[in-house]
Amino acid sequence: MFKFLKEKLKKTVENISNKFKKEEIKEEVKPKAEIKEIKIEKIQEKKKEIKGEVVEGKIKEKKGFFEVVKEKITTTTIEGDKFEELFYDLELVLLENNVAVEVVEKIKNDLKRYLVDKPIKRGKIEETIEDSLRYSIGNLFIDTINFLEQVKAKKPYVICFVGINGGGKTTTIAKVANYLQNNGLNCVIAAADTFRAASIEQLEEHADKLGVKLIKHDYGADPAAVAFDAIEHAKAKGKDVVLIDTAGRLHSNEDLINEMKKIVRVAKPDMTIFIGESITGNDCVLQAQKFSEAVKLDGIILTKADIDEKGGAAISIGYITKKPILFLGVGQKYNDLKEFNKEEIIKSIGL
Amino acid sequence: MAIDNLGTKLKESLRKLTRGVFVDKKQIEELVKDIQRALLSADVNVKQVFELTSKIKQRALEEKEPKGIDKRTHIVNIVYEELVNFLGKEEHGIKIENKKPFKIMMVGLFGSGKTTSIGKLAKYYSKRGYKIGTVGLDVHRPAAPEQLKQVCDAIKVDCFIDKKEKDALNIYKKFEKEFKNYDILIIDTAGRDALSQDLIKEIRELNNLIKPDERLLVISADIGQAAQKQAEAFHESCNITGVLVTKMDGTAKAGGSLSACSVTKAPIKFIGIGEKVDDLEVYNPEGFVSRLLGMGDLKSLLEKAREAITEEQAQELGSKFIKGDFNLIDLYQQMEAMSKMGPLGKIMEMIPGMGQLELPKDFLKVQEDKLKRWKHAMQSMTKKELEDPTEISRSRIDRISLGSGVSGKEVRELIKQYKMSKKLMKSLGNVDDPSKLMRKFKGKLPKGFMSM
User: Fold this and answer.
1) Would residue A192 count as lying in a domain?
2) Cα separation of A244 and A264, whole Å?
3) Which residue range forms the structural domain that includes residue A96?
4) Which of A205, A231, B46, B119 could make a disulfide contact with A96, Cβ separation 3.0–4.6 Å?
């Protein structure tokens, strides 16, 4: 993930500053000529000033004047119009890397605020743009939480997984169960997807392989009841964690969203995790938004991160839900669950 | 939501273009940028978007408008033409050849909906009288064979699976003899990342063994810019012949699937529009366009944009209607404008409240033909007659009938309808709320005519 974005971003920032430098060359000639004049003037003025200063006591103001001159020689500014022009390329790079339009707008506005009409040191244009970009994108991610610590805080700790169809909920649950078991926590899984064909059998196979208890009803059963039973089972048997698998649902389907609300109402999960796909395009914004409107989300797991080298969806979903990304799903094996690290990601973007 | 606004924004810039006195480079650039934004936020591949819009821009700047068409109309035409070229014009299903079995192989990423779509396709074709068999070759995902089995059992379609065998090729070979009893065989394969070499090797081997007639790439409507590379790799491994887009009942604009089409040169053939087994439709480009750009039917929108009647004229006409003092010239203008907007059914859908009206099945068709004939009749009227239809005497009706080829009965009907609708308009008085207007209409419509 992010390989693509990294390369492109680097190049674009370079291009932008190059473009900017080129345009500056002509202008730069002028200030240099001015310097000489100003210097001469300065010396003369200084003499006058010294007298004047003593008389008028305007030392500070005069110092300010020198600084203005100095700044004029060593710094530059990006004007509003030029910003639009220069950053169009950057906008495209972000879009190409699957960052949602809305989030691109936000990054652009951030940069505008940081860069437009602000003095920037000559020779440090690239650095300044990069800094601003790092700051802006870094702020889009919420700092992650210590997942294990949270889960250990309560017994049984109930986690509900929600998301749209085909996002990889069931596979992810198997991975999370594996992760928790490896960390000495006992799990029980609730097969609360009673809709999709063979969803129960799929979980059964995972549960068998992992040696995890599975609580199931029949197809068409009330998913909330399955969740409830699993929690009761965990209480009775002293299990540490309950993982609830729910049916995939589109955020546009009112009835299914209500069903999800009911599961959450009944199970009262300690944590609700949204499973998103890193290959999703602009729609991830709306998906994440609708789900987080319907139920209180606490974290996100992004699946199929090994498929997509662009990584824009991570940026978008993180920003829209304002919830931490807990893990990335990076493959087909149980161990292919990677803890999400904000710093690492930003580094891997090349910022 | 920014995305919801995109259609509106595009509409606005089109309108600005059609209303403005001059068309300058800046306006064209603005329009192009709006089109870009709309397409990009619909997940259309960045490169494709730029190819398309640079074509539009170039043509808009360089092409000289044909005689009789002003610059603005011409630009709107260009936009429309290029968009249509881009999105394709035809409907595509699968042409089932008469051989036993006709083989359809489904490939795609994990979780794109292959197995679910197989159920839908099987239902679609078994409803049309074909004998369907399916075979489950997903040996990787837990319980994949069971899923196919359950899907097929529910629609009573035969399904061949072997839960123990871990080699997809062997499963196919094992049942191969039985397949000739079926008209269509649909083959389920494992979901895969098309950039993973092992899985691609498997699909290549399967393709060589099975030699499917149709290789459908199943792609989720919400896929983003990753679509391009995935489609490329799938295409390389088994030469895709068609695309099936799933989850079209969500809010995704499905622009990613267009990348798949452009890479594979294969058209979209079906779309999945829901969770039920019947929720499958043959792809319809027009509906797709409206979804992609987040607005109503693009064609009618553009037609409307270049409509001869300006907003002010329309308003004036509207108030004339309400006052009840409109004449046949106004009516003619309205009809003319309406015929430009497409079939009546479409227009009805676009008018709020009209969609819910239950009309006799061929009502619209009949009305449409009638309108056409009335238009002919009006063309044979003098200006005076048009301005004051009450003046039209019997001998005049005969003359009009002879001149236009419309029967005297129909001309009389036109005049009658004119009087009726004039009365109707008057009785409606000052109704501000269009939905109320529609309700009033509801009782009177089947007999009355479509003067609005």
Assistant:
1) yes
2) 10
3) 3-138
4) B46
